[in-house]
Specification:
The protein is mainly α. Helices cover 97% and strands 0% of the residues. The protein has two helices and no strands.
């Protein structure tokens, strides 16, 4: 009978270990979810800042290009015509 009592004791220990493991997994999942939300918020903030920088840079480059076009409209038109002609030739070869 002692052998069967030991077997039941071992099973009880295994059950306790499994319960503890399950509780640890639940707690770990909670922490990961909380950390995931924090990281997502940080990533959103970082991406928003980067988007603002890119938009600002784009506006500045557009303004510079517009200024160059206004300064030399003839040269700009000739360059656009040449680029179009080159693109047309490249497309035709395919």
């Amino acid at each position: 009978m002692s052998k069967s009592k030991n077997t039941y004791t071992e099973i009880d220990h295994i059950r306790e270990d499994l319960d503890s493991l399950r509780n640890n997994v639940v707690e770990l999942t909670r922490h990961m979810k909380k950390d995931g939300h924090a990281q997502a918020a940080q990533l959103r903030s970082s991406m928003s800042e980067r988007l603002e920088q890119v938009q600002k840079s784009g506006r500045m480059q557009y303004a510079q290009l517009e200024g160059r076009v206004k300064e030399k409209p003839g040269q700009t038109l000739a360059m656009a015509f040449g680029a179009g002609l080159l693109a047309s030739m490249l497309i035709r070869r395919r």
